[in-house]
């Protein structure tokens, strides 16, 4: 007997095929079987989706699962549980674990654990360079074969233009996208926040937006030079959006993501929160002009997708002086609700565009299965309730990380069910 | 009932203060200063109160000043000096503070290299917190003692032209002074080489790169210390050129008003930011600043710890 799930009466939004209509969706044996106005299926598990939005499962291109090595901060089990609870059916796991995922053996170990313990799909990202030290290329052929879907030295910018050039060139042989954390380290120099008037008043060292944008520019030029594919991680600056826009206009193979926190917050929050370390991340929260430019980039297509940069940390890593606190915030369990409440509700982006940003485009950028509800596609589905209101309560996160600046925010709209491979991975309790 | 003259539980910076609060501290300092001239320099105002001076950065002047102020007011106090580097390896700031708090002090005076460290303690501790300098953020008692010194000599702050010259980028003294002086109606002009001007500071006061312009007709000139590690940090070519282009020399003092006051928070680099003849010259009030430092810290302790009458 085959496993069948029928979602009845939902508003199905599949931006890749321009579908936005009340339809029934039948999932059979882990694949999308049928999408039609009225589907009947004997023996299927019935899910009443009336009043809900049914869309292709969300894919986060930028997640730190921390395992192996920092299981105190997060594990594959806890991180994927958080992903499911946040509406994500797949996450791309950044390689800055301990050890760094720069070898096929580590990739395979991550995938093994994910298969056993993961609530959602895990797509490992391999390192650009061995140990992410920015010097010698990692073995992309082996990494690809073992299951890596991209390469990145996220968290540690590739400082050498020569190394970046070789990475973009060599990655072409294995159809790997190079995801770069763009930062000129001699300018940022470990600064805990954005350079500008707010940092000046707080007496904190600042990382200038230009230090990010000049590396985006460099990467765009190198992608143009080599014909390689570059994806700009967590673009945070207006100048970066501009660099990507110019690259795209010239036909360069460049894509870019933005995080919910850079889309919604500014460096003013560091001040108004009086140095709350949950406002510390890299890249840092920028100015209001930068934030507006990111939103404009979402609207005009310069920014291809929204990714969380989910970066769980232990309380000890955050409950210290601002200068000493770890960079990063959790995002998997807040991203979708934040986007619905702060981007869709005010009309900054439409619901289909948001779904494109969270599902269709991430899948396309890395060539991942999913991102569509076309028959034959993986039965990965996210169900949204646009009317549901809830308060962000970090104490109830499934992630081990509690480090979020969004605690206490009341948000309208949330993921209420996550289906992975035709099985319900998570559903909202009453 | 009238509201208290100084309604805050902590002193974390000058920025959050109203002019009337600053006034209250200065007036209290003026009143308490007289105690320092008595043959027996002790009043029982803070008897039974415990103050911990927690210094994570080297400091001679500020720490001694707080300690004397505490003793004059009869508070019980102890000083703990530790290098910030030990924080990275050993006990965290929060653990240290929590342990100290278990001994029930009424106040922690904190000097720390991390901006915002006093705010962090204020969030997690019960004691009153006094910021004795945090990173490049603020050094409120320094600004208060500078203001007290200027007010003593000039009778007012409002309308005075004050030049603040030197390493603005790394200076908590500059930030606290800009806040205080502008709140009190002084006209501040800032001066530094462009590499030592923090972005956006011009929203608080005008900036010039030319010290001659900065000191022109000044009623007071505050020179900022150029820290040793900045001298070789690539911010300017040589110490020689820094002194020649941005140092306060006798010739430059002549451009200011005839009754100009020269201030420096110390410790001075003679021949770098300030020429010896100026530091030791007739306009210098640098030692008055030190004396006033004790008075201002007495006032802060007194106001925050709710000292009883009897001074």
Gyration radius of chain A, in Å = 20 Å
What is the count of DSSP helices of chain A, taking H or I runs of 4+ residues? Answer: 14
**What composes the largest sheet of chain B?**
5 strands, parallel
Can you tell me the residue ranges of chain A where pLDDT is under 50 for at least 5 consecutive residues? none
- The global form of chain A is globular
User: What's the N-to-C terminus distance of chain A?
Assistant: 31 Å
Query: Helicity range of the residues of chain B?
Result: 25-40%
Number of strands of chain B: 9
Shape of chain B: globular
First CA to last CA of chain B: what distance?
A: 23 Å
Number of helices of chain B: 13
Mean residue pLDDT of chain B: 93
Main beta-sheet strand count, sense and barrel state of chain A: 8 strands, mixed
What does this 3D model show about the protein?
The complex is a heterodimer of chains A (430) and B (311). Chain A is α/β, with parallel strands linked by helices and 430 residues long. Chain A is built from 14 helices and 18 strands. In chain A, helix 4 crosses helix 7 and helix 7 (209-226) packs parallel to helix 8 (238-249). With 311 residues, chain B is an alpha/beta fold. Chain B has helices spanning 19-33, 61-72, 85-89, 93-101, 117-124, 140-154, 172-183, 211-215, 228-231, 239-246, 250-253, 276-279, 286-304; strands spanning 50-55, 76-81, 107-112, 128-134, 161-165, 187-191, 207-208, 220-223, 261-263. In chain B, the strands form 2 sheets. In chain B, strands 7-6-5-8-9 form a 5-stranded parallel β-sheet. In chain B, strands 2-1-3-4 form a 4-stranded parallel β-sheet, with helices on both faces. In chain B, helix 1 (19-33) crosses helix 6 (140-154), helix 1 crosses helix 13 and helix 6 (140-154) packs across helix 13 (286-304). The chains are: A alpha/beta (430), B alpha/beta (311). At the A-B interface, helix 6 of A face helix 5 of B.
């Amino acid at each position: 007997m085959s496993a069948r799930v029928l979602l009845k009466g939902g508003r199905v939004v599949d931006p890749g095929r321009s579908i936005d209509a009340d339809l029934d969706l039948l999932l059979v044996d882990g694949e999308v079987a049928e999408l039609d106005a009225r589907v009947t299926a004997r023996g299927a598990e019935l899910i009443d989706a009336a009043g809900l939005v049914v869309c292709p499962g969300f894919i986060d291109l930028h997640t730190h699962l921390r395992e192996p090595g920092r299981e105190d901060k997060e594990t594959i089990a806890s991180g994927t549980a958080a992903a499911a609870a946040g509406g994500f059916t797949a996450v791309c796991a950044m390689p800055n674990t301990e050890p760094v995922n720069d070898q096929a053996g580590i990739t395979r170990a991550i995938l093994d654990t994910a298969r056993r313990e993961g609530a959602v799909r895990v797509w490992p990202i391999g390192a650009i360079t061995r140990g992410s030290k920015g010097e010698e290329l990692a073995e992309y052929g082996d990494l690809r074969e073992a299951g890596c879907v991209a390469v990145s030295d996220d968290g540690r910018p590739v400082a050498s233009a020569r190394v970046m050039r070789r990475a973009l060139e060599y990655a072409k042989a294995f159809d790997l996208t190079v995801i770069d954390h763009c930062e000129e380290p001699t300018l940022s120099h470990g600064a805990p926040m954005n350079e500008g008037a707010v940092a000046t008043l707080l007496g904190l060292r600042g990382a200038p937006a230009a230090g990010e944008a000049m590396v985006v520019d460099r990467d765009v030029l190198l992608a143009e030079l080599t014909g390689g594919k570059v994806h700009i991680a967590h673009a945070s600056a207006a100048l970066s959006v501009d660099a990507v826009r110019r690259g795209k206009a010239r036909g360069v193979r460049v894509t870019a993501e933005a995080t919910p926190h850079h889309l919604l917050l500014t460096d003013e929050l560091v001040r108004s929160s009086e140095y709350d370390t949950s406002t510390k991340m890299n890249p840092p929260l920028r100015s209001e002009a930068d934030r507006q430019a990111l939103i404009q980039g979402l609207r005009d297509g310069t920014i291809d997708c929204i990714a969380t940069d989910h970066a769980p940390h232990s309380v000890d890593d955050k409950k210290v002086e601002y200068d000493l606190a770890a960079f990063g915030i959790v995002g998997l369990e807040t991203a979708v609700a934040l986007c619905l409440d702060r981007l869709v509700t005010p009309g900054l982006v439409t619901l289909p565009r948001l779904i494109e940003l969270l599902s269709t485009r991430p899948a396309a950028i890395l060539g991942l299965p999913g991102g569509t509800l076309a028959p034959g596609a993986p039965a990965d589905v996210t169900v949204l309730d646009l009317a549901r209101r809830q308060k962000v309560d970090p104490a109830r996160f499934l992630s081990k990380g509690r480090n979020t600046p969004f605690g206490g925010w009341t948000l309208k709209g949330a993921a209420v069910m996550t289906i992975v491979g035709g099985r319900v991975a998570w559903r909202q309790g009453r | 009932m009238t509201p208290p003259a100084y309604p805050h539980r902590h002193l974390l910076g000058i920025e959050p203060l109203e002019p009337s609060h600053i006034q209250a501290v200065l007036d209290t300092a003026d009143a308490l200063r007289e105690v320092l001239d008595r043959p027996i320099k002790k009043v029982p105002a803070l008897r039974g109160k415990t103050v911990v001076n927690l210094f994570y950065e080297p400091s001679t002047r500020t720490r001694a000043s707080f300690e004397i102020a505490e003793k004059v007011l009869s508070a019980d106090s102890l000083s703990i000096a530790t290098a910030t580097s030990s924080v990275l390896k050993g006990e965290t700031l929060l653990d240290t503070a929590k342990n100290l708090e278990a001994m029930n002090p009424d106040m922690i005076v904190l000097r720390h290299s991390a901006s915002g460290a006093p705010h962090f303690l204020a969030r997690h501790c019960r004691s009153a917190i006094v910021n004795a300098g945090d990173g490049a953020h603020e050094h409120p008692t320094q600004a208060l003692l500078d203001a007290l010194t200027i007010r003593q000599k000039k009778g007012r702050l409002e309308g005075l032209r004050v030049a603040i010259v030197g390493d603005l980028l790394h200076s908590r003294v500059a930030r606290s002074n800009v806040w205080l002086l502008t709140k009190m109606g002084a006209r501040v002009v800032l001066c530094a080489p462009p590499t030592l001007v923090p972005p956006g500071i011009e929203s608080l006061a005008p900036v010039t790169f030319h010290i001659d312009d900065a000191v022109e007709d000044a009623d007071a000139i505050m020179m900022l210390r150029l820290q040793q590690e900045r001298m070789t940090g690539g911010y300017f070519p040589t110490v020689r050129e820094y002194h020649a282009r941005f140092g306060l020399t006798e010739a430059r003092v002549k451009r200011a008003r005839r009754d100009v006051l020269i201030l420096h928070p110390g410790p001075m680099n003679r021949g770098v930011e300030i020429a010896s003849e100026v530091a030791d010259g007739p306009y210098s009030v640098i030692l008055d600043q030190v004396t006033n430092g004790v008075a201002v810290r007495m006032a802060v302790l007194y106001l925050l710890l709710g000292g009883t009458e009897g001074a």
